[in-house]
Amino acid sequence: MNFRTIAEEGVGVFFGAPQSPWLLARPVRDARFSVTRLECRLNRSANRSVCLPPDDAYFLMLYLSDALHCDVAVDDTESEVRRYRQGSICLVDLTHGARIRLLSDLDSLAFYLPRKLFREVSEFSHAPRATRLRCRRGEDDDVIRNLGTALLPFFEQRGGGQSPVLQHIAIAICAHLLHSYADLSEPGATMTGLSVWQEKAAKDFMIDHYGEYFPMAAAASAAGLSVRDFVKRFKAITGLSPSQWLSRYRIGQAKQYLAARALPLGEIARRCGFIDEDRFRRGFRRVTGVTPSEWRARWLQ
After folding, report:
1. For residue 75, what pLDDT is reported?
2. Which domains does the chain have, with CATH numbers?
């Protein structure tokens, strides 16, 4: 995969969808940003193999609807099939290429981001000057989801790749990835956090059950760890304890209910896994600095 191929065919060719629309831009200087609108339909096929060749770049997928696929290793062994939620992302280092087997229709935005682009963005902005990013699998990322939504209208515009707005969005995406997923560890250092799959399994469990009370031992079990090891490793890689991460996720869901204006605070608290409205109010204020009522009032202005 290289930009000559992408400029002529887009990344859709690797997904069996060569007619997929794509956008190219030079956000800073020479390095180019590419995003493809993928709508892959398996039709009668049970699955589809996707192979992305090695390159000095990262591949970012934003899922616009739920999808199922598994990773394929160099020796052709396959991981278990995993679900990737709408609004989540995958971030993959293409140094050695990447292979997956798609087992459902795919509706997504696929970004091709050369390392050179990240170097240019880090010089242009205040983003970290990292040379590596931590790979992600099914990570919920509100910033990428919102920026991706802002990109969708450009696929209907001729010459959209020349838009200054698109260039600003491209810079914002790269800067966010550098701020959020920069790998600052030394090469060869011993891993003290969770593996990508352990992190995904634990977060998936907490997201699936965020509206319920559950002991943290259940999330630790999803990652195959004791509670003590899980808490220590989770914080090492996210900067938050599992309880803090879950609380912030619950607050994020509560904001959506608050913005919809339809539900009273007590019902929102119940749906988001808080024991009562008072705990909800205190937890919301601890994270946002305001009460749920104040946040809703500001949203409605």
Report:
1. 85
2. 3-181 (2.60.120.10), 196-300 (1.10.10.60)
